[in-house]
Amino acid sequence: MKNLSVLILLIFTVCFVKTSSLQAQTNQKIKEETILVNENNNVYLFFSSPIKTGIAGSESAVFVYNTKQKENIGILKGKNGCNTNLMIITDDGSIFSFIVKYQKTITKFNYFYNNQSSINNLNKLKGNKTVLKSSDNNENENGVITENSYDTVGIYSKNNIGKEKDFEKMCKAVINDGIFFRRFTCSNNMVELKLNNLEYKNDYFYFFMTIKNNTNIDYDVNFTEFYISTKKKKLRSSAQKIMYKPDYIFNNPKRIKGKTSEQFVYVIKKFTVSNNKVLIIDINELKGERNLSLEINAEIINNPN
């Protein structure tokens, strides 16, 4: 009887180890799946849920998807020498990760994925989310913390913790330098966004801006985004966005009361822009449609004050 018990335990252990090994191999296969691309063919990626975000690791790979009318399909291409990664997040929170490699001749052009092919899910991770700085009201109706909700002043990068005083001092100095630009403005229904100056100090850009509310209705900021996109407006809905998040924000306005204006500074790690692209600063109004979108050309970004 004792020998039988030992035998049963041994069989159970072997089965468990094999099952765990197979599961690990399956997960590894999902995480390390390689998609072959070239510059002459479109590779189509189909998902069971609409695509929310797609980010390639370098410009050698281009992933295109519809950002205005969400769809379940994305198109992938790559240049000669491409060897990078691609991350995709779908509307249901599923996270997909791929390796993208160049091959002169490819034979597979269509890939199909459901949420079982994902490496994780944002909705499962939200309980473990760590936020360096966030506003008190930065959760959407589903309770998920939005990435673009920021406090009035704060550090937003772990690498810069401890630099608050240096950033604050520099931001005040940039504001004291005054207004340098006059032509970089945009407006929507009598609400104006203006880039006053762009200074470069110690590997960081300092975007000094003003929002002016010429109406009687208070303007509540929902989120602010900085990203690089194509100059051609017709192609922006399907073009890949290269997002830049702030490292520090000084005097970030949450509400601009009627007939008032607010000055603020966003600090972002240095980057450059190619001549066929522009930097776009989007400010979205909370529970409103007076959204602001300001374009900054490559010449200004690549030659700051």
Key structural traits:
about 300 residues; 6-stranded antiparallel sheet; 5-stranded mixed sheet; Immunoglobulin-like; alpha+beta; about 40% strand
Question: Can you describe what's shown?
Answer:
With 305 residues, this protein is an alpha+beta fold. It folds into 2 domains: 95 residues, Immunoglobulin-like (Sandwich); 149 residues, Sandwich (Immunoglobulin-like), CATH 2.60.40. It has 4 helices and 20 strands. The strands form 4 sheets. A 6-stranded antiparallel beta sheet has the order 10-16-18-13-12-11, with helices on one face. Strands 1, 3, 6, 7 and 9 form a 5-stranded mixed beta sheet that branches. It is globular, with a radius of gyration of 24 Å. The N and C termini lie far apart (85 Å). About 13% of the residues have low confidence.
Short structural description:
The protein has 305 residues and is an alpha+beta fold.
Query: Biggest sheet: strands side by side, in what order?
Result: 10-16-18-13-12-11
As residue ranges, the low-confidence spans are 14-30, 128-151
Structural class: alpha+beta
Largest sheet: 6 strands, antiparallel
CATH topology of the largest domain: Immunoglobulin-like
- Characterize the overall form: globular
Q: Report mean pLDDT, rounded to a whole number.
A: 80
Quantity of strands, as a count:
20
> Which architecture name of the largest domain does CATH use?
Sandwich
Distance between the termini: 85 Å
CATH hierarchy, class of the largest domain: Mainly Beta
N-to-C order of helices and strands:
HEEEEEEEEEHEHEEEEEEEEEEH
Q: Cα-atom Rg, whole angstroms?
A: 24 Å
Measured as a percent range, the helix fraction is 10-25%
